[in-house]
Design brief:
Blueprint: H1 3-13, E1 33-38, H2 42-52, E2 56-59, H3 72-75, E3 80-83, H4 89-97, E4 102-105, E5 121-126, H5 132-139, E6 145-149, H6 159-169, E7 175-180, H7 186-194, E8 199-203, H8 209-220, E9 227-228, H9 249-255, E10 259-260
Parallel strand pairs: 1-2, 1-8, 2-3, 3-4, 4-5, 5-6, 6-7, 7-8
Antiparallel strand pairs: 9-10
Length: about 260
């Protein structure tokens, strides 16, 4: 499995407490996954991302996945991948063969990019104003995550900004990553998590190592939510995918559809 997907799953499930006297404590999970976006000077950007200990890093500004050969060494142990507006089946194959963990792309990509068996985490960029019908169709695609572009937000987040993210996260079974151009405040990070975001993708162009270190600390120190709605893996039914049974109204009335997190 993709390392990024494994982390997103563990964040979603929560970190289990160690069992037994003297059991080693498990590493603390961040409240959101942190993915860096490198748009230029790729070798140096990947090295900086690796030194900062990001959860994954995406490289954009390359003509094709084949142009990214040799980047794996700079990324070190950090999962990395390519971000293109449109990809082909050859791009997907080149990424898999080059040791990539992630592949991000848009709806203009070729259908062949979905073919084949590999361990890549596929991230699809979607518009936040998709109708229910459009989102249902897009959710049927065999991708793992959606990216919502919120780079226009450069100051404190408003309720409208949060609702924009929630309009996707609350209507799909995919992990939702939010693309940012600036580091949100701690309270805004928690609000994004509570609106259903699983991670953030941050453009590293103007982010200092000190700012990255502070963000990593903030994500690790995010308070665990007191309650959270059980993540539904079939929020948007789609042909070809098994849907979880709809809970009965009696069950809903009994537990108010919430579980204690702690």
């Amino acid at each position: 499995m993709s390392k990024l997907l494994d982390l997103l799953q563990r964040i979603s499930d929560g970190s289990p407490a160690p069992l037994g006297f003297g059991a080693a404590r498990t590493a603390r999970l961040p409240g959101l996954a942190l993915v860096g976006l490198v748009t230029s000077d790729h070798q140096a950007g990947l090295t900086a991302a690796a030194q900062a200990g990001l959860d994954a890093v995406l490289v954009s500004g390359v003509a094709s996945a084949g142009d990214a050969k040799g980047l794996a060494d700079s990324a070190s142990d950090v999962p990395w991948g390519i971000c293109l507006s449109a990809i082909s089946g050859e791009d997907a194959q080149a990424c898999a063969e080059g040791g990539a963990d992630v592949l991000a792309f848009g709806l203009e990509s070729a259908a062949s990019s979905m073919a084949g068996e590999d361990e890549l985490a596929r991230i699809l960029t979607v518009a936040p104003d998709l109708s229910d019908r459009q989102l249902r169709a897009v959710s049927a695609l065999p991708v793992d995550c959606f990216t919502v572009d919120m780079t226009a937000v450069i100051g404190p987040w408003t309720l409208h900004d949060l609702v924009t993210v929630g309009s996707i996260s609350r209507r799909t079974d995919k992990y939702v990553l939010v693309l940012l151009s600036a580091i949100p405040a701690k309270d805004d990070l928690a609000a994004l998590r509570d609106m259903g975001a699983s991670g953030i993708i941050l453009d590293l162009s103007d982010v200092s190592p000190e700012d990255l270190a502070g963000l990593k600390t903030a994500l690790l120190e995010m308070p665990r939510p007191r309650r959270r709605r059980d993540r539904a893996r079939a929020t948007v039914p789609s042909a070809g995918f098994a849907s979880a049974p709809t809970p009965s109204r009696e069950d809903d009335d009994d537990d108010d559809d919430y579980d204690d997190y702690d």
